Amino acid sequence: MNFEEKAIKEAKLKPIEEIRKGLKLKDDEFIPYGHLMGKVDLKVMDRLKDKKDGKLILVTAITPTPSGEGKTTISIALSDGLHRLNKNVVCALREPSLGPVLGMKGGATGGGKVQVMPREEINLHFTGDFHAITTAHNFLSAAIDNHLHYGNELDLNKDRIVWPRTLDVNDRALRTISTKYRNDGFIITAASEMMAILGLSSDLLDLKERLGNILIGYNNKGEEVYAKALNVSDALTMILREAIKPNLVQTLENTPVLIHGGPFANIAHGCNSIIATKLALKLADYTVTEAGFGAELGAEKFLNIKTRRINQTPDAIVIVATIRALKYHGFVDEGKDSIVALKEGLSNIERHVNNIKQYNVPYIIAINHFADDKKEEVETLIEWANKNNHPISFVDGFLKGSEGSIDLAEKVVKLTNREKEEFKYIYDLKDDLYTKVKKIARKMYGADDVVYSANAKAILDELNKNYSHLPVCIAKTPLSFSNDTKKRGSIYPFDLAISDARISRGAGFVVVLTKGIITMPGLPKIPNAEKITINPDGTINERL
User: Fold this and answer.
1) Is the pLDDT confidence value at 101 over 60?
2) Per-residue confidence at 1, pLDDT binned at 50, 70, 90?
3) Per-residue model confidence as pLDDT tens digits over 338-364
């Protein structure tokens, strides 16, 4: 039995009904799914609409590395730490996608003594939200082809249909396909506009309106055609009527966790649903939530897109890093001395810190501490933080649970008790699309300029006529500030290359795709699925 399995066995999980009662949710506001998870009915939002919101804490990270940084682990550790301090806290996380679970990344429920339970269910099918989104998305695809089959009354141009198909599996062979009716292709479910719509809808009626507003393509006159023209908005909403309800689970230490929505931050907006976040803000004095990948991706989209939807900005931001990740950004794997590599790798977190400072929100650096971190490395990092006035905390949640995250929790409470200053957006919604992209590219990525392919420029010129007022969602590799996945650290000149653009009209933003971005990942040579073994009783040995 490994350390994590031992931590799970020793945990004293409560029936989900007890967690529900602890949040003062009424009987008719909760739908249990077995003993350890359930859904919260949206009617609770009406009851709590006049209740004051709690504090909002956003967890983000440095640029991802092969060894991982532990954003979810720190989010759970911080939540457990606040719980240990007798604070009323709810953690709000995204749902894991099966693509990465079976592919390269593995699960997304934390690790060691800071995990969300039941981890196998959460990492696999959970309450079926991803399947519902996949089904709704593909039903719309089928409805489009059915319309073409029966005479095409809407005069759709089959070469300008922009709605693809989707699947929650990494499958590069499906990136482009040809059907009887049109050239098509698959994207992964986490990149589906329906995932974004679910994440950004405020209630069932808002969901229905957004689904109807999806741009499915253009007619032969060049005019936009929306999903509502097919008369399937109610059917799509019906498919998603349970999926829109947030899922309630718990940590190993019984801290309540709402897990809902799962858009990727490299090809979507990378945050859990606004319904779950707003619910958490009503139920608790402290809400801990995360944004995917590095701060220039998930946090940027959280701060420029999501905050505008929830009318709330963070009271504090936590930037997660590990010493091994910082050394990786300093090229320790190429033979550099560990201290030299650490010092050079600090350029990455320095840029992320400077990025966050632009929003005028207090921050703290959280170091996901490993037992093999050397004393000299720790001292070097502390010296750097003190010299540059960066608040910092070393978190031992993985090995010690909430006991190892008390320092971070106490420091975060102090940050949130500061008088809130005026939040500063990176761009104004009045800016045109080109200006918004350039501001993000320069202020968040450190790009010298932005260059567009002829295709991207033609599309953006057209989108600027009717959609310039919308926020932009830049799809970019998470492995670098630039388009180049091999560019580590931070300090290097580059122009951000844009290859494509599209309107996510139902979600309410314009997607701008950088050169090389892929919306349907492939499996690695040895996928994570090969490491999973299952026992006769249904338990899984390999950590998800």
Assistant:
1) yes
2) low
3) 999 999 999 999 999 999 999 999 999
Please report how many Cα atoms fall inside a 13 Å half-sphere around the Cα of residue 456, on the Cβ side.
21
Answer whether 294's CB lies under 8 Å from 62's CB: yes
Residues 283 and 410 in one domain: yes
My answer on whether 151 and 87 are in the same domain is: no
Residue 123 counted as domain residue? no
Q: Which amino acid is at 262?
A: G
302 or 530, higher pLDDT: 302
Question: Which CATH number covers residue 190?
Answer: 3.30.1510.10
Question: How many residues appear in the chain?
Answer: 544
Three-class secondary structure of residue 165 per DSSP: strand
In Å, what is the CA distance from 17 to each residue of 117, 246, 278?
14, 15, 21
CATH code, domain with 492 = 3.10.410.10
- 437 and 412 together in one domain: no
d(CA 401, CA 113): 5
Going from the C-alpha of 207 to that of each of 191, 196, 227, 240, 244, the distances in angstroms are: 17, 11, 13, 9, 8
Among residues 238, 272, 291, which one ends one of the domains? 238
* Mean pLDDT, rounded, for 154-162: 97
CB contact at 8 A, 522 and 516: no
pLDDT confidence of 105, banded at 50, 70, 90? low
Please tell me whether residue 319 adopts helix, strand or coil conformation: strand
Residue 104: the pLDDT is: 73
Which of 102, 60, 54, 37 shows the shortest CA–CA distance to 356?
60
Can you give the residue range of the structural domain that contains 389?
A: 46-111+256-416
Query: Alpha helix (H) ranges present in 396-481?
Result: 397-400, 406-416, 433-440, 454-467
Q: How far apart are CA 408 and CA 286, in angstroms?
A: 14
Can you list the alpha helix ranges (DSSP code H) found in 226-314? 233-239, 274-283, 300-301, 307-310
CB atoms within 10 A of CB 476: 29
The closest of 402, 367, 378, 530 to 112, measured between CA atoms, is 402
| Total tally of structural domains belonging to the chain | 3
Both 198 and 323 in one domain: the answer is no
Asked if the model's pLDDT at residue 106 lies above 90, the reply is: no
Question: What is the C-alpha separation between 262 and 218, in angstroms, rounded?
Answer: 29
Q: What pLDDT is recorded for position 542?
A: 58
Nearest-angstrom CA–CA distance, 180 and 182 = 6
Burial of 398 (0-12, 13-18, 19+ CB in 10 A): buried
Mean pLDDT of 42-46: 96
For residue 275, pLDDT beyond 80? yes
d(CA 245, CA 132) in angstroms, rounded, equals 12
Question: What angle (nearest 5°) sits at the alpha carbon of residue 214, between those of residues 213 and 215?
Answer: 110
Residue 169 near residue 102 (C-beta atoms within 8 A): yes
In a domain? residue 36: no
Domain co-membership, 287 together with 155: no
Interval 490-499: pLDDT, tens: 878 999 999 9
What residues form DSSP beta bridges with 116? Answer: 251
Residues 302 and 187 in one domain: no
Residue 423 lies in a domain: no
Residue range 521-536: mean pLDDT, rounded: 85
Q: What's the CA gap between 431 and 429, in Å, rounded?
A: 5
